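for the record, two folds in this file. i put them one after another cuz i was lazy. first one right below, seq on top, structure tokens after. the second one comes after a little note so u can tell where it starts
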Amino acid sequence: MTVSEIFEYDLDSTPEELDAWCAQADFVFNLAGVNRPQNQEEFMAGNFGFASTLLDTLKKHGNTCPVMLSSSIQATLAGRFGTSEYGKSKKAGEELFFDYSKETGAKVLVYRFPNLFGKWCRPNYNSAVATFCNAFANDLPYTVNDPSVELELLYIDDLVDEMISALKGEEHHCEFDGVETVLREDGRYCAATVTHKVTLGEIVELLKSFAAQPSTLIVPEIPAGSFAKKLYSTYLSYLPASKVAFALKTNADERGTFTELVKTLGNGQFSVNISKPGVTKGQHWHNTKWEFFIVVSGKALIQERKIGTDEVLNFEVSGEEIKAVHMLPGYTHNIVNLSDTEPLITLMWANELFDPNRPDTYFEPVENKD
């Protein structure tokens, strides 16, 4: 499908534009809505009134293109949403769309969205996630009345993916068991298939770990597709300029410098080592720890010798042809800067975090000169 033009109708658009665009549209996304009105009557006007105007205009032009409606889980009028004026207005809008479909034969796609979150969402408005992200990013006070409260959350990128599927005629259908979404091919409603159920307490604990990362260097677990990964991206969008860059602790001596870069909870840590011209570093071995040495600038000789033997493995490497060299467990190893004038820059990865109480590091020269 090729989209040749997108018509964007908003509060500052004119009735004439709506009329012209309803005559031409091949697909309509109705994302309009009111959720923080000054009085309760505005719910119905915003969530029902415009929908009625939109559908009447489409009927005027005989345009039966598919129409999508952005509704809310509150339209279930179940549980704590039972007396919600917002939910009632959304429910009225849904029924208006279904009646329109029966009358005209047009395809309608009614989505009941849970709580949305993602980058740039307005804090202190209608998103707890946005409010908490903004608070932690900017060192602002926050309040959690009940950490056990569970939210169903839909990430904005997952919503966009579903909207693209809808545009292609590949929307996902569902029914509702109370507020629970039950995917069904013959469902009356539509749904984004990827949501996350998390408690307020879990959100806050994750944000605490994100905010501490510049000092701990620990990047929390963020598996592909996980809520944590999406929350981290959301959190970063609220960082002030003063926090976008932060200093790292560099350990320096007469040989050069060593700086820890990033630590992970289950996959080790990354560091950068800078050796002065002619310097040899290392000369130690590990029982269980192993590493990758990756020279990115300069020329080096990496040597490894299995403990208890005289056999030395030699690897000449340089930043001109980048290679990763294993530092094998049970092999004492070193790295020699072969240049007399240029520093040697090496990225290093270790399979575990350094523990000063169990360093697993034992001094022994690679070349035994006895």
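(here's the note) second protein begins now
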Amino acid sequence: MDGSLRRNLPVVVTTLIASLAIAVPTAQAADCAGANLLPALASVPTAKAATLCLVNGERTARGLAPLAADPVLESAATAYSQAMVQQHFFDHVSPGGQTLKERLASYVASADNWTMGENIAWGEGALATPAAIVKSWMASTGHRANILNSDFEEIGVGIVGGTPVGSLPAVSATYTTEFGARSSVSSAGGPTHASASSSEPLPAAAPQVKRMSAKKKAQISKRCHRVARRTKASKKTRKARYERCMSKALRAAAR
């Protein structure tokens, strides 16, 4: 934690690897389109919207203002998720030494007062859906603190297929959420900056995701395609059959 830069606005930057213990979707997932689908199946824009919907659902349920999507934060979040997948690391500091403050430099460039935070996560199969990721964050103290931080006003969600450990992009995803708020001296009365870093591991009892080979995943996908085409139906119905088959099969294979 960088105490020299922390004045009035506390921030926690947290890290998460999704676990099998938290695979059940939240009750709010039914209200957010695509929340229970893999990003590769629902489309990445739909998955981003679902993640924001779920995060804001947690906030508004507790009387907090919803976060507004910010394109600068989204760009930074997406770039960082991509970097973690391509460079095979999972941390708030990149292998080249880039920190959260450096990643969000353009976001706070013209601000006198700002605060920022970050949640990251990755998951495979049913654990890669927006519902599973947000539920995992809400079950972890540090991640929950970022989501429910009343100082934050804006958010950027970045989702990329694949994981830092080389999982198949079609059945996995890496998430980054950048949180922020900024203002000028005229509206806040004096400069204040907050940026801190502390990683919070999952409970020791949480089991790790069981890895599947690319061959096994391809076999599951091929079988589900056959299931989807078993009887005549519309393209939409066949897609829904395939998604249900994939979700069920991946959950079973991950046990």
